[in-house]
Write a structure and sequence with these properties.
- The protein is α+β, with helices and mostly antiparallel strands.
- The chain has a domain of 98 residues: Double Stranded RNA Binding Domain (2-Layer Sandwich).
- Helix content is 38%, strand content 16%.
- The chain is elongated.
Protein backbone atom coordinates (compact mmCIF):
# COMPACT_ATOMS: atom_id res chain seq x y z
CA UNK A 1 0.00 0.00 0.00
CA UNK A 2 1.21 3.52 -0.73
CA UNK A 3 0.68 6.92 0.86
CA UNK A 4 -2.63 8.72 0.25
CA UNK A 5 -2.39 12.33 -0.88
CA UNK A 6 -5.57 14.05 0.30
CA UNK A 7 -4.49 17.41 -1.12
CA UNK A 8 -1.27 19.36 -1.60
CA UNK A 9 -0.91 19.96 2.16
CA UNK A 10 -2.24 16.72 3.68
CA UNK A 11 -0.76 13.24 3.29
CA UNK A 12 -1.85 10.04 4.98
CA UNK A 13 1.19 7.73 5.22
CA UNK A 14 0.70 4.03 4.62
CA UNK A 15 2.12 3.37 8.08
CA UNK A 16 -0.83 5.19 9.69
CA UNK A 17 -3.42 2.93 8.04
CA UNK A 18 -4.19 -0.69 8.88
CA UNK A 19 -6.67 -2.83 6.96
CA UNK A 20 -8.53 -5.86 8.29
CA UNK A 21 -10.74 -8.18 6.28
CA UNK A 22 -13.57 -10.31 7.64
CA UNK A 23 -16.69 -12.07 6.48
CA UNK A 24 -19.51 -9.75 5.58
CA UNK A 25 -23.20 -10.16 6.21
CA UNK A 26 -25.89 -9.35 3.70
CA UNK A 27 -26.19 -10.25 0.05
CA UNK A 28 -23.83 -12.68 -1.63
CA UNK A 29 -25.44 -16.07 -1.13
CA UNK A 30 -23.04 -18.89 -0.32
CA UNK A 31 -20.15 -16.57 -1.21
CA UNK A 32 -20.77 -14.68 2.06
CA UNK A 33 -19.78 -17.75 4.07
CA UNK A 34 -16.50 -18.28 2.22
CA UNK A 35 -14.96 -14.94 1.23
CA UNK A 36 -13.83 -12.12 3.54
CA UNK A 37 -15.25 -9.08 1.73
CA UNK A 38 -15.89 -6.79 4.71
CA UNK A 39 -13.16 -4.17 5.06
CA UNK A 40 -12.28 -2.40 8.30
CA UNK A 41 -9.84 0.45 7.84
CA UNK A 42 -8.13 1.71 11.00
CA UNK A 43 -6.47 5.11 10.66
CA UNK A 44 -4.16 6.55 13.33
CA UNK A 45 -4.92 10.28 13.27
CA UNK A 46 -1.61 11.10 14.98
CA UNK A 47 0.23 9.73 11.95
CA UNK A 48 -1.20 12.23 9.45
CA UNK A 49 1.35 14.49 7.76
CA UNK A 50 0.27 18.16 7.75
CA UNK A 51 0.87 21.37 9.66
CA UNK A 52 0.03 21.53 13.37
CA UNK A 53 -3.07 23.73 13.05
CA UNK A 54 -4.63 21.44 10.45
CA UNK A 55 -3.82 18.33 12.49
CA UNK A 56 -5.46 19.83 15.60
CA UNK A 57 -8.51 20.87 13.57
CA UNK A 58 -8.86 17.35 12.12
CA UNK A 59 -8.54 15.80 15.59
CA UNK A 60 -11.10 18.20 17.04
CA UNK A 61 -13.67 17.67 14.28
CA UNK A 62 -13.28 13.88 14.24
CA UNK A 63 -13.09 13.59 18.05
CA UNK A 64 -16.49 11.90 18.44
CA UNK A 65 -15.50 9.25 15.87
CA UNK A 66 -12.12 8.36 17.41
CA UNK A 67 -11.48 5.58 19.90
CA UNK A 68 -9.20 5.80 22.97
CA UNK A 69 -6.06 5.34 20.86
CA UNK A 70 -6.93 8.23 18.49
CA UNK A 71 -7.82 5.73 15.77
CA UNK A 72 -10.61 6.29 13.27
CA UNK A 73 -12.41 3.09 12.22
CA UNK A 74 -14.15 2.95 8.87
CA UNK A 75 -16.10 -0.16 7.86
CA UNK A 76 -17.24 -0.91 4.33
CA UNK A 77 -19.32 -3.93 3.35
CA UNK A 78 -21.72 -2.61 0.73
CA UNK A 79 -20.26 -4.60 -2.16
CA UNK A 80 -19.65 -8.30 -2.75
CA UNK A 81 -16.14 -7.41 -3.85
CA UNK A 82 -13.31 -6.97 -1.35
CA UNK A 83 -11.54 -4.59 -3.74
CA UNK A 84 -14.61 -2.35 -4.11
CA UNK A 85 -15.12 -2.27 -0.35
CA UNK A 86 -11.46 -1.36 0.13
CA UNK A 87 -11.78 1.49 -2.40
CA UNK A 88 -14.97 2.65 -0.72
CA UNK A 89 -13.27 2.70 2.70
CA UNK A 90 -10.37 4.79 1.33
CA UNK A 91 -12.83 7.21 -0.33
CA UNK A 92 -14.68 7.59 2.99
CA UNK A 93 -11.37 8.24 4.77
CA UNK A 94 -10.29 10.90 2.30
CA UNK A 95 -13.72 12.55 2.42
CA UNK A 96 -13.76 12.63 6.23
CA UNK A 97 -10.24 14.06 6.46
CA UNK A 98 -10.96 16.63 3.73
CA UNK A 99 -14.16 17.78 5.45
CA UNK A 100 -12.44 17.96 8.83
CA UNK A 101 -9.50 19.95 7.45
CA UNK A 102 -11.64 22.79 6.12
CA UNK A 103 -11.05 25.94 8.12
CA UNK A 104 -14.22 27.48 9.49
CA UNK A 105 -14.83 31.12 8.73
CA UNK A 106 -15.11 33.45 11.68
CA UNK A 107 -18.68 34.56 12.21
CA UNK A 108 -19.10 38.31 12.01
CA UNK A 109 -21.76 39.49 14.42
CA UNK A 110 -24.29 41.81 12.80
CA UNK A 111 -27.26 43.75 14.06
CA UNK A 112 -30.71 43.37 12.53
CA UNK A 113 -31.66 46.17 10.16
CA UNK A 114 -34.41 48.63 11.02
CA UNK A 115 -36.68 47.26 8.30
CA UNK A 116 -36.20 43.66 9.51
CA UNK A 117 -37.18 44.72 13.04
CA UNK A 118 -40.33 46.42 11.71
CA UNK A 119 -41.14 43.38 9.56
CA UNK A 120 -40.73 41.05 12.57
CA UNK A 121 -43.05 43.17 14.75
CA UNK A 122 -45.64 43.39 11.95
CA UNK A 123 -45.57 39.60 11.50
CA UNK A 124 -46.03 39.15 15.25
CA UNK A 125 -49.07 41.45 15.20
CA UNK A 126 -50.61 39.55 12.29
CA UNK A 127 -50.01 36.22 14.04
CA UNK A 128 -51.60 37.59 17.24
CA UNK A 129 -54.67 38.77 15.32
CA UNK A 130 -54.95 35.35 13.67
CA UNK A 131 -54.91 33.68 17.10
CA UNK A 132 -57.54 36.13 18.42
CA UNK A 133 -59.85 35.19 15.55
CA UNK A 134 -59.48 31.49 16.43
CA UNK A 135 -60.82 32.05 19.95
CA UNK A 136 -64.47 31.27 20.42
CA UNK A 137 -66.46 34.20 21.60
CA UNK A 138 -68.66 33.38 24.58
CA UNK A 139 -71.80 35.43 24.85
CA UNK A 140 -73.61 35.70 28.17
CA UNK A 141 -77.27 36.33 27.42
CA UNK A 142 -79.44 36.61 30.48
CA UNK A 143 -83.18 36.42 29.70
Amino acid sequence: MEDIYVNSKITIPASAVAIKFSRSGGKGGQNVNKVSTRVELVFDVDGIVCDGKTKNRIKRKLANKLDRTNALRIVSQESRSQWQNKQSAFEKLVEMVTDAAVEEKERVATKPTRSSKIRRVDEKKIEGQRKQLRKKSVSHDDD
